[in-house]
Every structure is written in structure tokens, then in C-alpha cells.
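User: Earlier you gave me the apo prediction for this protein. Now I'd like the version with magnesium ion bound, so I can compare the two side by side. Same sequence as before, with the ligand SMILES added.
Assistant: Got it. Here's the input I'm using:
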Amino acid sequence: MEFESPTSRCIPSDVVLDPPPFPIILPPPPFPFNPSLFFVMDNQRSISLLQFMADEELVPSPDEEDKRKNAIKKLKQIVSLWIKKVACQHQLPKHQIAVTSATILTYGSYGLGVHSSESDIDALCVAPFFASIAEDFFVVLHDMLKRSPEVSDIHCVKSAKVPLMRFKFDGISIDLPYARLNVLYVPENVDILNPFFMRNIDDTSWKSLSGVRANRHILHVVPNIEKFQSLLRCLKLWAKRRGVYGNLLGYLGGVHMTVLVAYVFQRHPDATLNSLIMNFFQIFAFWPWPTPVMLQEGMLLTALDAIDTRSFMPIWLPSSPYEFCHTNITKSTFHRIRTELLRGHNMTRDLLKTNFNWDDVFESFPYSKRYLQFVKIYLSSHNQYALGDWVGWIKSRFRGLVVILEGIQGFCDPNPTEYTDSEQTEPHVVFYWGLQHVKNNIIDIDLVKGEFMKIINNGYEGTPGRMELSILLTSQLPKKALMMGL
Ligand SMILES: Nc1ncnc2c1ncn2[C@@H]1O[C@H](COP(=O)(O)OP(=O)(O)OP(=O)(O)O)[C@@H](O)[C@H]1O
Ligand SMILES: [Mg+2]
Ligand SMILES: [Mg+2]
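And here is the structure of the complex with magnesium ion:
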């Protein structure tokens, strides 16, 4: 398999990046062109897509939505109590204690209304200046949450770019980062675009606020939010089914998908759902990476300075003119994503195709048919709580393992699905990643493990669990994993 070297694709710093010339809305019509047939087929496909979405239950049920709303309401109550407690501990004057307040702002897929049943709730805790992150957030609020009967599996992720607490509230995963504003009273729906609230805020708080800013920007630039939500929900499902969703594993995360979909939507706001999907595949199957995808036309070129020119797919972060979404994309995952986009394009391009079926477009990626060998990554720990910490840490370092395996085999497909081994009784998680079969090449898995251990041993503060790596042939894959779609 041939890959471009990332360094050969650096962008010269004097290039002005205009959006690439992709005026195509629909593929070339058949000859003789029959516009009414074209229109009918396009509408028919949009209708069958809506049916497909309903069958897949892409929108969570009203009960699930209520559960989420309730979780946010309770979290708001907890942070309100917390900030009063912290104000007392800091011995603030009584009148200040009386007026001080903190709040929760939702962002990410939940904030945009494009979440699925498996999505987390991204909830930013916004508090006044006197509540420190190290002590008041990660200790005092952590302890209060831990004592709440609805909260389980709470972990502090202090070393992340955006430090946060991650836990389950009534079974729903919550990501809770933290931002401090230079005010005493934080209104419930504080306007974080108002410069008054942004005065002299610290770096971490600015970064933590970027998700909320990004959502505001998307909502501002996207014309018809309901259609946008449907489109994004569909394409996120497509990315998940095809195994190319998940930032930690080197694929597209929610934020990347949001920007790509918004890019298409901005250009064709009146197109049907079917045409928008066709356009998405058409545009990104042939996108001249690493030309960045940007939502604002004629965007300042100072942004170019901020591009990591080794990035395979630079995608502008819609919260700042100077930032790009963080990615873990490697040459293998870049190749996989592009192959999937091309597949999507090939399957949707011909409106007159007689046996067209959305089920085929959204078919799960058949790993066991595609690869002859796999690397099995077995992670375990003595209890479920420690396993959560351990797996979270290893996942945050997975890009390193993908690169090591790429170096040896030329290609590695880090399947994001987590499996379990029915023969094991200890708390554990298993990953099976597809590998390119290279004739007469025996992988020295101990060497791979040794190299990866060097990466994971650096900086972990919890109790390390166990990690086993082994190479399996397709015929050795467990039946249960095959039944789960491996
Ligand atoms: N790689 C990244 N680069 C920049 N911002 C990110 C990145 N990952 C996450 N974020 C910010 O955090 C938010 C929440 O991320 P998350 O991974 O939960 O994705 P999501 O869009 O909410 O999708 P999902 O439904 O899978 O949760 C994003 O909307 C974005 O604002
Ligand atoms: Mg999310
Ligand atoms: Mg999240």
C-alpha cells in the first residue's frame, strides 16, 4: 500500500487558501437528461433515508431525553450548592456568599441536538474566580459528585488539554470540564461571547470554553438547523458503522464530523437530504488534503501559521480563527477514511441505480472479511473502577501503538469497538485491530509491546493494570466478537 509522506505535503506559508472549487451539487445527469426523473429519484431517496433513520432510532426516545434533561437539572443544583460551600470555605463576606453562583453549559453533540443514545453529555461547569480548579473543582466538587447516589465511575482527567471529570449520571456518560470567570455571579445562561465575562480569564478556562464557542458558531452559520441535525446524525451513524468514528483511535470525532457536514450544508442549504449526502461524499472523497476545511470564506491566513503542516486532515475549529481541531489521524487511518468516503461516493453517485438501498451504504465494516490477521489488545485490572482509568489512559495513547504497527506492517486499522472475552472473569476490555498481511513477515509482538510500554509508562498516575498484545489469524477470532460484527 502506498502512502504520501506527511512532510511532502507541507503548505507553503504564502499560499492564500480559498475554499476548493467544488461547485458540484449532483453528479452528471444521464443522457438524455430528464429533470423530472432526476427530481423524483432524489426525493424518493430522501424519503427512504428518513424511513431508514426512523428504523434505526437515530433520535433518542422522549424518555431518554427526559433522563438527560433531568441529569443536567440535577448537575446545576449540585454546582449551585458547591459554589456556596466553596465561598464559605474561602470565607467570603456573607453578602457575596448570598449572590455568588455557578452554572452548567451544555455543548458537543448534546448542545447541538445531534446526540444519539450512546453519546455523552458535554457539560461545562462555569464558576466564579475564587473557585480553584486544583482544589475546589477536582477535590471539593469531585467529592460532592461522588457522594451523589446517581453518580458512578467518576474519574479525574487532569492531564488532558481540556482537564475534566468524567462520570456516569443515572447511567449517562458526562464530560465535565471547568472554566472560571472573573465575576462573582455567573448567570444560568451566561453569554460567553460577551467580552465582559471573558475579561482576564486563564488559559485553561479559555480552552475549556472552546466547545461552547464552537457550538455557538455552528448554530450561527448553519441556516436550517433541523435539516442540519438530520444530516449530521446520519453521517455520524455512517462513520460509526464504517469504523471511522472516534478521535482517540485516529478517526473522525464528533467535532470533525460537525465541521465537515456544516461545510457542505452551508453551500447547499436548500438541497434535499439525499443531495446533501451525495455532496458530502462527492466533496470529501476528492478533497485536496491537507488543504484545510474552513467554514468562513476568505479566512485569514494568519490561521495558516497555526496549522500543523504534518496534519493529514486539517479541520478548522469553529471557536477561534487560529485553531484547528485536534486529530490523531495517522497515514493508515487517513487512508481508511478516504477509502470510506470514496465508497460512499461510489454508492450514492448514480441516482438512477436500480438496486440502491441505504442499508448497503450504512452496512457495518466487515473486519473479518477484510483482514487476514489482527492484533489483539487485552486490557484488564483488579476492579471495574481501576479498569476505567486504565483503559482511558491507554486509549489516550493509542495513536502511538497505531504508528508502531504501521512502521512494521505498513498499515493498521484500529477498530474502535470494545469487546469482551467470555472466558475471562476479571474486569477487562479487548480490542481487535486489523493488520495488513505481509508475506514472510512475522511480527515480533514483544518488541511492539516494549515500544508501546515506553509510551504508556510515561505520566500515568493511577494503578497500572495489565496489557497483553497478541497476533491472531482471522480463523482464531472468537465467535462472540464475530457475532458482534467483527
Ligand atoms: N479533537 C478535538 N479538537 C477540538 N475540540 C474537540 C475535540 N474533541 C472534542 N472537542 C470539543 O468537545 C466537544 C465534545 O466532544 P465529544 O468527543 O463528546 O464529541 P461530540 O461532538 O459531543 O460527539 P458524541 O456524540 O460522540 O459525544 C466537541 O464538540 C468539541 O467542541
Ligand atoms: Mg459528546
Ligand atoms: Mg465528550
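For your comparison, keep in mind: Residues 1-25 have pLDDT under 50 and may be disordered.
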